[in-house]
Design a protein that fits this description.
about 250 residues; alpha/beta; eight-stranded parallel barrel; globular
Amino acid sequence: MLAIRVIPCLDVDSGRVVKGTRFLNLCDAGDPVEVAKRYNVEGADELVFLDITASAHKRPIMLDVVRKTAEQVFIPLTVGGGVRTIDDIRVLLKAGADKVSVNTAAVLNPGLIKTSSRRFGSQCIVVAIDAKRVKGKNNKWKVYTHGGRKETKLDALQWAKKAEKLGAGEILLTSMDCDGVKNGYDEKLLSAVGKAVNIPVIASGGAGKLEHFYGACKAGASAVLAASLFHFKELTIKQVKKYLNKKRVSVRL
């Protein structure tokens, strides 16, 4: 059994790490390079760096921040936000990213997943899915794009399956309903997507206490991601790993 990865997420807006609730009410959480360096020391397995307003504002991702982060962080770095073309992916990988996350561009042009996975390898192509529960339906979620601002007609489970078929190596699955609320991950969503695909699924959105990380692992997540909990030092990465280890979940201590 592969070890569960514990991953801090750096949501970046205008050059600063931010965190909000359900994609709204953003507050400052520090300089991205300094925050990344701290997580590298604290034992994070990977880092996810998302420029959350690049797609909505139609601007390129901040390559200088990516380069500076990659120079000082020695764990796998996934970068996303504002990625539109195969050349954007190439430039990010050249700047030091180990993986590139695509969301809006992949929905608008699914062929981007296929082309990029063939050129660079599926292991470095992550498809991010921002999913929101359909009102009145317990087991149905819609996909949103542009940093959670635009609803699509895509069903989250069907889109995850299609992304895998096109060559995605991993799914970064964020529950918009649970994001920032700290009441736990959407375990039903995690379980449903985990059963629909055969590639790793990263759980995102909702972590508030140690038990929530364990719940995500039981629901089938291959990795657990959190932001504000780690940024504001409510929990440390070591605490999460020690807790999961006590629960007999395989982690890298």
